[in-house]
Every structure is written in C-alpha cells, then in structure tokens.
Amino acid sequence: MKPGMVPPPPGEESQTVILPPGWQSYLSPQGRRYYVNTTTNETTWERPSSSPGIPASPGSHRSPLPPAVNGYHASGTPAHPPETAHMSVRKSTGDSQNLGSSSPSKKQSKENTITINCVTFPHPDTMPEQQLLKPTEWSYCDYFWADKKDPQGNGTVAGFELLLQKQLKGKQMQKEMAEFIRERIKIEEDYAKNLAKLSQNSLASQEEGSLGEAWAQVKKSLADEAEVHLKFSAKLHSEVEKPLMNFRENFKKDMKKCDHHIADLRKQLASRYASVEKARKALTERQRDLEMKTQQLEIKLSNKTEEDIKKARRKSTQAGDDLMRCVDLYNQAQSKWFEEMVTTTLELERLEVERVEMIRQHLCQYTQLRHETDMFNQSTVEPVDQLLRKVDPAKDRELWVREHKTGSIRPVDMEI
C-alpha cells in the first residue's frame, strides 16, 4: 500500500484516489472516510482537490474533527495481539445493522469485527493493517486504543489510563526534582554561613609584613566566597526550584477532569452497546415468532393466522428499526469517544514534551549558575594569589628591624 492511500470500503470510493501532496486518507470507527493534512494537521470529511477552490465532492462539508485525527492501527501482526488492537474501521450509519442483522452479508460483516469491553475493533484475521498517523514518532494517538492486562491482577487497564498515570508520574518526578534542588540550596546556605563565620576568626591575626597582608586577604576571600554562595542559593530558589514546583500547579486536578470526561464517554458507549445487544435479542425473538406463525400458516389456513402473521411482521420490522436506531446511537457514541481520544492523547503528548523541555531548560540554568559560581569563586582568590607572589621575607625583615631595633653598637672585649 502506498503512503497516503487506503483501500476504499464497499459502497464508497470505487477506485483508489490519488490525493494532493501532504494529504492522507483514513477511516473513522464507523467506516466513514476522512482526510488529514499531515503538514497542517487539518482534517476534513471532504476529499481534497488538487485544484484550489474546487471541492472534490459536492455537498460535503468540513467537520469539527480534532486538529489531528488518528490513523489508528489494526492488530494484524504478531507484535499486536487482539487484546491490544486499535480502533475499528466500520461503515457509517447506512451500514448500521452490522451488529444485529441476521442476513448473510451482515453476518459476514459482523464476523469481520470483534468487540472488546464494548469497543468494536477490526478482526485481525480479516482486516488489513491500518496506517498510523505518525508512523515514525511512536505517538500516543496510535498505540493506546485498547485495554491492557493489569500485571498486578486479573483485571485490565485502559490505554488512556496508562497515559494519565504517566502524566501524573511525570508531575511527581518534577516535584521530587524541586525537593532535590531545595536540599542543594540548603547545603549552599549552610556552607555560606560557615564560610562567613570562619572569615571572622581571629586566628593568626597578628601575622605581620607581606605575609600578614596575604593572610588577611585569605580570610577576606572567605567572606567574599560566602557572598557568592548565598547569591547562588538565592538564584537556585528563584530560577530553578520555584519554577519546578509551581509548573502546572493544578495539573492533577485537570488530569482528573480529563479522566472523568473520557470515562463518561466509555460508560455511555457501554450503555449504548447494552442497548444494541438488547435490541438484537428482541429482533431475534420477533423473527423466531414470525417464522413460527409462518409455519402454522402452511399447516392451516385461516384469517386469524394471516392476521397474526401481519402483526408479527410489523413487530419484527419495528424490532429491526429499533436495532438500527440503537446501532446508530452506539456508532455515534463510539465516534465521539474516538475523536475525544485522539484530541486528548495528542494533548497529553504535547504536555509531556512541554514538561520535559521545561525541566531540561531549568537544569541547564542550574549548570549555568554553577559555572558562574565557580568563576566568582575563582575571582575571590585572585587577590590572594597576587599578594602571595609579593611575599618577600628580606623586605619584611628590614621593615620589622627598622621598627623594633634597639641599637646597632656591638659589644667589645673588656680591657684590664
């Protein structure tokens, strides 16, 4: 299969259509074809035309699909067993009896799909592999449609729930990084206080001469270094710790809202699926009743039997209409869940990229502050180096002797 093309389903495009550059064709969960511009993320139900301003299919209109809609992936390969299958490709409402009709063609269509937790997927043995929207990016929107077995128990975890767990774990990691930086700040503050205290120590304060000047500068350099580390700790707080701690303060609350929204859509989907099953069962009973009354008519002709058949036929037709309505509502619910899943998973992907980039930038700021601190620390000892190079014992001796000399006359021998 060539990139940008998907085999058209029965009843739609009868031949492969060459799309303009940058456009790809996909199928919604109900089998309705839509088009995605992989450059601009624009989506439309209308087949794009190569000629600007000329619509390709009259009467079609642009739909409020999400900015980028998933070209979901089927489970036809060993790497993706049925438990991890992605979204189903189905016909639109015109094929709404797939879930309930007993005709051979509809039954065959039903065998082409499987239902897992009320979500309809293409059967891996009959459905060709579906194209991914972002085949080279391992995007969230391509790989989290089905549920996954919980390794801790016998239950399952929804693919969307796994994404939420990753988001919340990322928020926790970010919080722990902020706590780590806070501990680093505390070390800097304690170190600065100890340096400042040591700089005030009076030990060896009576050293004289050029060596005494160098020693005094050593003590002063400690006070200067203490100031450097205090500034470093203050910048760590304002430029690293605080942004890490405050980034998306309401993130957990927002994720819960998002979780509840998707969960509500899944509940609605389960409810619609139950209605389909109930309507299918009712149709089967009505068809069985109609068949039984038809057999009675063959045995014994009477006006009453014919009337019963007409009544049974009306009930069977009504049951078929009810099933069509239930299937249509189910498909609408699944389509809504599909679109919200695409929009939300892409948003979660964007948020994760944003979080990682934010942390990277602030850690880069941390290393930059460290480099600056090392440079400032080096500058505090440069005056010490200069004075140490000027230490001159001979000069110091001369100055000291001049100041403290008691006399230059040497003693001589005593005469008799």
TrEMBL record:
Amino acid composition bias (Pro residues), ranges on this chain? 1-11
Please provide the record's keywords in A-Z order.
Answer: Coiled coil, Cytoplasm, Developmental protein, Differentiation, Neurogenesis, Phosphoprotein
Recorded hits in SUPFAM superfamilies, A to Z, give: BAR/IMD domain-like, WW domain
Q: Please give the residue ranges the record annotates as the region Disordered.
A: 1-111
Coiled coil stretches, renumbered: 266-307
The subcellular location is: Cytoplasm
List the biased-composition ranges (Low complexity).
48-60
- Annotated ranges, domain F-BAR: 136-396
State the InterPro entries in the record. Answer: AH/BAR_dom_sf, F_BAR_dom, FCH_dom, GAS7_F-BAR, WW_dom, WW_dom_sf
According to the lineage, what is the superkingdom? Eukaryota
Domain named WW is located at: 17-50
Sorted alphabetically, the Gene Ontology cellular component annotations on this record are:
cytoplasm
Asked if the record carries the keyword Cytoplasm, the reply is yes
Mainly localized where?
Answer: cytoplasm
Summarize the protein's role.
May play a role in promoting maturation and morphological differentiation of cerebellar neurons.
What this protein is called in its record is Growth arrest-specific protein 7
Report the source organism: Macaca mulatta (Rhesus macaque)
Q: Which gene name belongs to this protein? A: GAS7
